[in-house]
Amino acid sequence: MNHDLTTALTAYLECALWSSTNYGPDGDIGDSFYSEGFEPDDIAPESVKAARSELADFLQYCADSGLSTDEYATDEMMGHDFWLTRNGHGAGFWDRGYPGTDGDTLTALCKPYGSSDACMGDDGLIYLS
Predict the structure, then answer these.
(1) Packing angle between helix 102-110 and helix 45-64, nearest 10 degrees?
(2) CB 33 within 8 A of CB 47
């Protein structure tokens, strides 16, 4: 595994903010956290720590499976697509155009991680669950 975890994590967190809706206190639908100006620094430290651990595990899982993405997937792509794919968005590893069946393999490798949601805590920090 030669992907830079810090770069991949930043892309993962940015994608979480970009693709997640901030609901208001009355349950009204707002814009994405990203559109509202939130940044990765606004994510609770324990959520960042958990995301780092899951992403590191996923990248190692890919390497252990014999799948080497280093030559065609950037660090940013790995973080971004891990968030999208694990959450069942309409885009992700399977539609990136990776060679052969690698996109499908990466998609399958995401399944054990389940989905994650972003929500605003009472303390003003964003939590990933």
Answers:
(1) 130
(2) no
| Pair of tokens at residue 118 | 């972003």
Decide: helix, strand or coil at residue 32: strand
Number of separate domains in the chain? 1
Buried b (16+ CB within 10 A) or exposed e, 46-61: ebbeebbebbeebbee
Task: Give the pLDDT band of residue 1 (cuts 50, 70, 90).
Answer: low
pTM, full prediction: 0.93
Domain around 46: 5-128
Task: List, in sequence order, the alpha helices (H) in the chain.
Answer: 5-19, 45-64, 75-86, 102-110
In this structure, the number of other CB atoms found within 10 A of the CB of residue 26 comes to 5
